[in-house]
Amino acid sequence: MSKQRPSRRAFLGLAGAAAASSLHSAAQAQAPGEIRDLGETPTEYGRPSPFADSKRWSRAPDATASSSNTPLADLEGIVTPSGLHFERHHTGVPAIDPDSHRLTIHGLVDRPLVFSMDDLVRMPSVSRFHFVECSGNSGREWSPAGAPNVQLSHGLASCCEWTGVLLADLLDEVGVKPEASWIVAEGADAGLMSRSVPLERALDDVVIAYGQNGEAVRPEQGYPLRLLVPGCEGSVSVKWLRRLEVAHMPSMARDETSKYTDLLPDGKARQFTLVMDAKSVITRPSGEQKLNAPGFHEIRGLAWSGRGTIRRVEVSTDGGRSWADAEIDGPRYVKAFTRFRSPWRWDGGRHVLMSRATDDTGYVQPTLAALLEARGRSTIYHNNRIKAWEVQESGEVTNVEA
Question: Of 316, 262, 305, 299, nearest to 280 (Cα)?
């Protein structure tokens, strides 16, 4: 049952004296006439402050690593910096010269065409904010052990501004035959990553992207060209895109048969489970963080849904026994990260923090128990369970299965 969110002013009022004291101390610390060193001159490409914790690290930090996780708990807003976008690739990152790269569209079309990068850039463009999430994101959350922090539990998801050409415009150029019902996308990586997309989905909001956050798509994200299928599992958004075949059936490629299918307890498997359902995670306080003292703490987090827009986020501080509406912070873009915040006064005791998202289709983020009843623990994909973090009396925050 939801209850009214407490007034932000009521929480912040007690902090006024402490804040004023801190400002007075800071002013005294700056002696009049203090000599300061001259700052650095401009650089060709901006870089983070040496004092900023802007690190990115892999779940398997060695030469054979094929994935890296976004440090969601350390970021602000909804946009993931290009250099912190998670990676997932199967045969390494290819180096592709955009001058020689081509996109071929063929199959059940009236006019097969080959597009250069210059051809694509000259076409009408769109720029949109969307998340990309690996279907294996939160795979560890099927296990009772879970993951110790947000980066490892939810870090195979990122959100950027993507720029490119609508696939529907390209398909209009080639002319799709009436019997067509699927699009097969193929990448230019060594493994020729290939995924099938229903034609109806391809004609909706799918983008052939060459831009990311105002610059060229990063190599790890598919430079010079990638498919972007908003709201669907990340492997469908084929990177280093070189070929699109319009077909009457899916290709049944390796990565949509032996991989990226959901094995059920009865031995059957769900296939083409493309949409990433509504999901949320509290990023602060969260695993491996520590609250230094009782008092006011703002609960912060992210929510997203491949079905549409986040309509509501609820927060619980008692393990799901009661829920209160969180404040949605900033814009609510379709199929993009959404920020939520909720004021909380920690009393120094043990608490279990949880968040629950609802999207504009009415879909509500499920409990772990509901997911296990439907799918068991045999799969590693599509885990959008309600995530719980335990705040202990010491202030340390740990993972807990709830």
Answer: 305
| 240 backbone φψ class: left, alpha, beta (φ>0; ψ -120 to 50) | left
Model confidence at 56: pLDDT above 70: no
Q: What stretch of H or E contains 151?
A: helix 150-154
| Residue 336 CB coordination number (10 Å) | 22
pLDDT at site 263: 86
Can you state the percent helix, strand and coil of the chain, rounding each to 5? 20, 35, 50
- Yes or no: say if 277 and 262 are a contact pair by the CB < 8 Å rule: no
pLDDT at position 183 over 50: yes
Residue 63: Cβ-neighbour burial (10 angstroms; 0-12, 13-18, 19+): exposed
Q: What is the mean pLDDT of residues 387-395?
A: 98
- Domain at 67-270, CATH homologous superfamily: Oxidoreductase, molybdopterin-binding domain (3.90.420.10)
Q: How many CA atoms lie within 13 A of 119 on its CB side?
A: 13
> What band does 58 get if pLDDT is binned at 50, 70 and 90?
very low
Helix residue spans in 4-83 (DSSP H) = 8-12, 16-29
Across the beta sheet with 295-304, the strand order is 279-284, 295-304, 338-346, 327-329
H or E, element range at 348: none
Q: Where exactly are the structural domains of the chain?
A: 67-270, 279-400
pLDDT value at position 3? 55
| CATH of the domain spanning 279-400, picked from 3.30.70.20, 2.60.40.650, 2.40.30.130, 3.40.640.10 | 2.60.40.650
Q: Is the pLDDT of residue 60 over 50?
A: no
Task: Check if the beta carbon of residue 102 is closer than 8 Å to that of residue 188.
Answer: no
CA 115 to chain centre: 30
pLDDT band at 59 (very low <50, low <70, confident <90, very high): very low
CB-CB contact of 117 with 241 (8 Å): no
